[in-house]
Structures
1.
Amino acid sequence: MAQESEIADDLDLDFEHTWWRKFVASTADSSLALSARNLCQYDITNKQHSFCNSLIIDTKDVKTLYTGKQYEGAALYNFGLSARIEKPLSIKLILGNYRAQFGKGLISGFSQTAARDGVISIKQSNSPLLYTPNGIASNIELGHHNISATYSRQHRIASLKDNHITYLNKYKTDKLGKTAETIHSFSYGFKHDLLRLGICYYDQNYQAAFSETHTQVPEQAIGFYTSFDLGKMALEQETDFTSEAVMGSYSTKYALGHFTNQISFRFATGTQFLPYSRNPFLLSGYGANRELDWLLKYAFTKHISSSVDITVNKDTQNLKVGKQVSRIWWDFAFKDRTTTARIKLKGLDRDILVLSDSLFIETIPLHYRVELEASHNLGRWSKFSYRMRYNIEEKSSYSKNSTYWDMIYSFRKKGNSIRVGLVNWNTNKRISLSNSGILNQQFFLGTDTRLKLDLQRNWEKMKLILSYEQSLRNSSICQVDFECSLAI
């Protein structure tokens, strides 16, 4: 069971852009020599159109990646050029927008888990909205050893007051000021059979000073990573020392028979994370916390499994509404060749949700959530799926609780596919579907029922997708998406 965070960052709250997030998420590494994609969305209600496009030129040793987006007159783009040499050394070099990962991402990273094949990894950035370093990144592998160096300099968006930084925005906008940002880092990794070790030095500075001490991000950091995996037992840790604080993430996992037991502990003494790091906490968006998580899984049979996940987070500087919060999550799943079913029961403190959405302030102290997902193959070519969410937020008036459901019928055969279904939601707060990570996360607010239709036609080197969405409560709400992909 994935350990999902209950805290949505700034990018998640911008739920109007869900349509193109899926496009960006699917612009992954390609083995095609040339791949071009363009998506056009037209909002009939507001008479607005948006574009998102990508171009990938991939040869044996060099790959060029461009992604762009035009929305409400604003043009955003990412560009990167990567080269790889396999002999006599394995060398990867990226020019342009890049993402770098060390260990579990507490200093710099794009994932909360370390790479399976090493300690250090770099990749091209494929999101034109999200801020990423822009410069040069290199990664050299020689036997068991891995060395990486990065350098970035750019003028990035920041909230400024009297020429002082009050906040570093994670996504691009033309409504704020800019400040020069310089970053360089050096990392070393070692991997051999069951053992992985790593050390990272990270340095950054900004042209403008920070307005307050508690808003200042650390300028330097040094991190240490260790992983020891015996198969049925694994130990992993990362400890980082910054110019402002200390932070760490530790976990141990043990499998015995049908049981899998995992215990994790995470802490940070400072209030701010590094700008391109991953938040290690599941229940908090601030740095000064201690968090303990216990995950227990049990496989009853080959097709039936269950798990329990208990998380407790304590704010060590009392920056949140509540000083200590907790969550418990029970999961039961069935899966065979034709049918998949899963039910989740979750209980969590209100103060966790208040951190990212103030609409929850007046709700009950303890929230309960029920999630149900099921799918069944109707023969060789078709499938029916159903999802349901019910959030108990008001016991005095159950009509104020949040609900969501969708039912989808899909048919796929010989390059043609059809998906048709209904989506319904009713909420005064905010209800989310977050099973696929940030880029695929969807948010719903208000009340509506919508008809959705997706048509897709695949040829050997070309793909066309037409999506239509119509509100059944308000005939004026209608949206059409068209995507064309070409590969040579």
Note: Confidence is low (pLDDT under 50) at residues 9-17, 435-441.
2.
Amino acid sequence: MGRTRNLGFGLGMLLISAGLAFPTGAWASEERMSFCGGGEEEEDLGADQLYEVEQKIEIGELRQARRMVVAGLRRGTFRRHVRGLALGAWAETELRLGQYRRAAGLYRRAIRAQSASETDPLRVGLAVALYRGRRSSEGRRVAERFVGAACPDNGVTEDQVACYGARLVLAMTAPTPESRSAGMEAADAVRASEPRLESSFAEMRAMFPAPPTTTVAAADPVAPADTPSAAGAAASSARTDAPRAAVAAR
């Protein structure tokens, strides 16, 4: 998989990768191929509008993307499975804008609408949103389930960027400095395994606060920052990676 659009369509973004379940580029035509029967023109309209939303996210016009997807949902433009992708895109915009609690709620809705499996990158978007929204225990549980289902120890996985994001959540929520250090090493190993996805990894990393630079005696997990500075960094990142195998958005 390999992009950062994981977090929406699938960080789908995933971002995008994660693509954190958001499809990009060719996804629109691929989605149309799955349509059959009545309502095809309306479905195509929804897919086309969702692609425009994706492009707005890609260039960092997050508020415009949010207005477009909300308007489409209110008008009923997004039908059937396209609605689930639209919810994933909305969730990603909220995450990148620092609206973590709202993003978590939207990720849950997108997961239900898409009947997303435990290996769907939308779940990484949810884990990140929960962690950044100061619900670290919940975020950790979601990340643990995703890693267990989608990120085997042999490193062969569909979405390395989503696995990297999930492992970052585990590292940031680890209970001791030692386990945090081990968690970051595991995340860094995933990142080092795919140099061609470096821009996507960097964008995913920007979703998180910086780790402590000195050894601390306290055993508290790394608390997420109060400011949504990561959203700005993520929005400005260039997305040049190949489309993923799978945030909702993608």
Note: The mean pLDDT is 75.
